[in-house]
Amino acid sequence: MHMLGSLNLGPIEFLSPVWLLLVPVLGGLTLWISRKSIAGLGNASRLTAIVVRIVVIAILAGAMAEPQLREVSEDVAISAVIDASRSVPDELQTRVDQYLAEVAEDFKETNDRLGTITVAKDAIVQSLPSRAVTGVDRRYVGQLDGTDLASGIQLALATAPQDAALRVTLFSDGLETSGSLLQAAEAARAANVPIDVMPLTYRYDNEVIVDRVVTPGTAREGETVNIRVVITATRPATGRLVVEENGIPIDLDPAGPSNGVQISLDQGVNVLPIPVPVSGRGVHEFKAVFEADRAAGGGFIDQIVENNTGSSVTFVSGEGQVLVLTDSGTAGNDESAELVRALREAGIRCEVAAADRIELSLTALNTYDAVVMVNQDAFPYSYEAQEVLRQYVHDTGGGLVMVGGDKAFGAGGWIGSPLEDALPIRLDPPQKRQMPRGALALVIHSVEIPKGVFWGKKICEAAVGALSRLDYVGIVEFSWQGGVDWTLPMALKGDGSAANAAIQRLQFGDMPDFDPSLELALKGLLATDAGQRHVIVVSDGDPNLGRSVLQKYIDAGVTISAVGVNPHSAGDLRTMERMARVTEGEYYEVKNNNLAQLPQIFIKEAQTIKRTLIQEGEIQPVMVGGSETLRGIGGVPPLFGYIVAAEREGLAQVTLRGKEDDPIGAQWQYGLGRTVTFTGDATNRWGRAWVGWGQYRQFWEQSVRWAMRPSGSPNVRVTTEARDDKTLIVVEAVDDEGRRLPTATFQGRMATPDGEGAPVTLRQVGPGRFEALVDTTDSGTYVTSMRYIAPSVIEGGPTIEGSVQAAIVKPFADEYRALEDNAALLQQVAEMTGGRVLSTDPSTADLWSRAGLTMPVSTQAIWLPTAIVGIGLFLLDVAIRRVRLDVLKAYYAVRRGLRQGKQQAGASMEGLQAARAKAQQRITSGGAGPSAESQDRDISRGTGHTQPADPKATQAVAKKKFEATDAQVRAAGKGKIALGGEAESPEQVKRRKNEQRPAAGEEEQGMSRLLKAKQRAKDEMQDD
Question: In this predicted structure, what is the pLDDT of residue 884?
């Protein structure tokens, strides 16, 4: 019913005005029908009925038309979208801040508002539109190596106030690396929101850019590869070029004093070829750096140094190699010794390293075909490193072998980690296992840590995430409102939903005293049936700590680990250290510049109660089915311990089972890679029967080789070609004789710099040639891994299988390629939306101009009260028709009633005045006036009145009407005292009453007679 749109009548708007057509239609019909239906009514009643009926029709039709009250706002809100990306020079950024600070003073006396949004790689609301904003808050603007102006405009539209008109003011150079500003401007135009622009103009006349470094994606070991360095110069320039291979400078000028070479650049594009022989398999990263000479004036030619570096990666094929991660990083001094010896005897090249001493990047890991982790806990591995290991398997096809020990798997804090997703087992123990539980209490006092609430929640999430669902966990918090209490009461973790919800409610008050929190935590721990009980405290150390509470922990055998952060003094740190030392816990000191270490500390401390996952004692593993890793092995020796885990559903295969069918050995395919787990250890502690076992080497060789990435053929080459924000991957495949493969099937994935993965689909464009176009918008390294299978070119020949890798490197963002602004785009946006191009002079700025704005209208629906009024009038209309009320007669009746009321009121006043006069006469009887006896004689003679008293005498008597003589006081006990001051006998009173009655012969007629009789009765009742 909205065909006619809306209709505005003053402050009222009808959303469905078509219903108003019922008013003339039904109104005319009412007039025609009423000529006969109400002909029996009087003229006034008939007219009233018709008017009421038409009013009812109008009101009900108005209610059906959906009426709303409209109120037009006069306020204007400015949403300033500020380009904070690296492409805008710093001096222009400062100028924008000063500009907004000055113009913000213009709206102080009005209800206008100002809000700010910064835009770089992401758009961030710095302040919502309000009168309190006085400038730009740049404390956090996100990553600066990108510009998404479209998201800034969209965010401004989304945060627009409902009660003010919106103008968007865009301060930018007009360069964008993602999104579409024009599409966002279309949305603003559709919303009638103008976009004013202030172009931030600049131009770099002296600039050198290392556009790219081009190398082949793959090469053979010992082959010489040609490196091409592409450099663009805005004008002729000179400088030094340095090229590094895996961080080691290449000597480009043997005769010179340094490894670099002096070069001269022409204006435009310069291509410099550099031949380099490659030795050793794996990843070879080549990096080129240009260092510009100083200009004649003493300054640098180059103004943006970030774009003077380029790099590329070449994968050199060769013999397979694995990386063994241990605690010490040496192959003869830790638990990996026997395992590494066995692998090397089997011909597998091993490199041994400690996790905290090696670069765990995708590029570095792809040097190896598999990674072997020997009894590793999660503490040395950051969240990013764990994600890299997962990507290494899933997206680049690398292998992973995880070997157990007392610090591995669930006992090592890997529960809930990204790497757990890559394992063929679940680290949480199965529900059926009845195992000793652990209990962990967290006492968090992070209020004085920088970003204390953020880090407080992060460390709680890390600690809770490292526990199994069968463990107890509780969080104690101090708040100013409620003091010390459980934010999360001590309970089983379960699925973790309750714990995570409680973590989000944390407020982190400034705790004055440790004792109440520690006592509450101890009480909760002792109430559990846990076998291991532990408390973790994080604080700056300034709350008070008593000795008695620590003694209670010692007596109960509960340990405390203390994490000291941002202490006020050395004494605060000593408090934290003493707390941990006397309870046999651990002490950690974390600096403000290393707060990211906090979650890892809590993961490590959570392992204290995860010792319950260790199953020790002699166990005979049972082999399950046949697998590649157990080929040729008839049976395995007993184990004397392992980590309890759960079987994973799906394609995971369990190869060895322990007590209650626990998975000891398992394997599966995860993405492009493979993973093997062994929950026992490789040492004499649990595997002392294995170390001397004759098939020990065979078992580990087959397990590691099954997980290793298949070696690639040197006949499959990969090259990459940059195409704006995308990269073309080209694969050329031939056989050993150099013949192109007619067909092949590729399965590929690409690991992106943001930690995500994306499939790579190759299509065949010719014999032996396959291509894929992938998105490489962001800066960083993209690692692509592809497995292939192809039939032999020779009929009946063997199938060709293998894998091939390629890396695409974008060393810097497109932000650093911009040499001048794009003011033309900003002007186009202003014209499209009806906006303005603003002057840089704040004194002439009129940001809050109303010109071209559609002022917002607030509405309130009133159809319900309108309908109620209409229904009420309808009932009145029915009453008028059915009751047959004559309006004129009713009017006159009401008028007569009012008149009689006035007359009765006058008569009442006269009666009161007469009664008052009689009272005064009675009072004067004891003084100057006539006596009571004389008045009685006058009435009995029929005079009907008394002589008027002297006013002065009356006043004198009135003044002493409550005074009594001594004789009257003595007589008070014998009888009554008259008001006039003279006592009367009962006989006198009775005679006076009788004498006051009218004569029996007096005629009384009508209503007056009845009224007098009623009055006499009242008098007698009062006297009696």
Answer: 58
Six-digit token string for 300: 């640098």
Q: Looking at the domain 716-811, which fold is it?
A: Immunoglobulin-like (2.60.40)
Whole-number pLDDT of residue 927: 45
Of 234-238, 326-330, 880-884, 981-985, least confident by mean pLDDT is: 981-985
Beta carbons within 8 Å of 878's beta carbon, 6+ residues apart: none
pLDDT for position 897: 73
Q: What is the pLDDT of residue 961?
A: 43
Fold of the 438-590 domain: Rossmann fold (3.40.50)
Does domain 74-203+820-851 correspond to CATH entry 3.40.50.450? no
Two tokens, residue 458: 């992060």
Q: What is the pLDDT of residue 958?
A: 45
Q: What are phi and psi of 385, to 5 degrees?
A: -65, -40
Q: Tell me the C-alpha distance between 91 and 89, whole Å.
A: 6
Q: What is the pLDDT of residue 266?
A: 92
Please give the C-alpha separations between residue 594 and each of 5, 414, 952, in angstroms, as whole numbers: 62, 22, 107
Show me where the domains of the chain are located. 7-71+862-885, 74-203+820-851, 209-317, 321-430+613-707, 438-590, 716-811
Confidence band for 344, pLDDT divided at 50, 70 and 90: very high
pLDDT digit string, tens, across residues 944-992: 444 444 544 444 444 444 455 555 545 544 444 444 444 444 454 444 4
Structure tokens at 126: 């710095």
pTM of the model: 0.61
Report the alpha-carbon distance of residue 254 to residue 258 in Å, rounded.
Answer: 8
**Phi–psi pair at 716, nearest 5 degrees:** -105, 115
Amino acid at the residue 811 = P
What backbone torsions phi and psi does residue 871 show, to the nearest 5 degrees? -65, -40
pLDDT at 21: 85
Single-letter residue type at 939:
I
Of 92, 79, 237, the C-alpha closest to 821 is 92
**270-279, 546-555, 770-779, 949-958 — which is least confidently predicted?**
949-958
How many other CB atoms are there within 10 angstroms of residue 672's CB atom?
A: 21
Please give the structure tokens belonging to residue 283.
Answer: 């990843």
At residue 827, the pLDDT reads: 94
The secondary structure of residue 261, as a DSSP letter, is E
Please tell me the number of Cα atoms within 13 Å of 569 on its side-chain side. Answer: 5
Structure tokens at 11: 């402050």
**Class for the domain spanning 209-317:** mainly beta
Query: What is the CATH code for 321-430+613-707?
Result: 3.40.50.880
The tokens for 693 are 């076992």
Angle between helices 547-556 and 514-526 (to 10 degrees): 20
Closest to 226 in 3D by CA, of 241, 215, 237: 215
Same fold, 209-317 and 716-811: yes
With H, G, I as helix, E, B as strand and everything else as coil, classify residue 914: helix
* Helix, strand, coil shares, percent, the chain, to 5: 35, 30, 35
Which parts of 268-331 fold into alpha helices (H)?
none
Residue percentage of the chain with pLDDT more than 90 = 27
570: amino acid identity, one letter: A
The answer to whether residues 721 and 764 touch, using CB atoms and an 8 Å cutoff, is: no
Helices (H) and strands (E) in the chain, counts: 24, 44
Average pLDDT value over all residues in the chain: 80
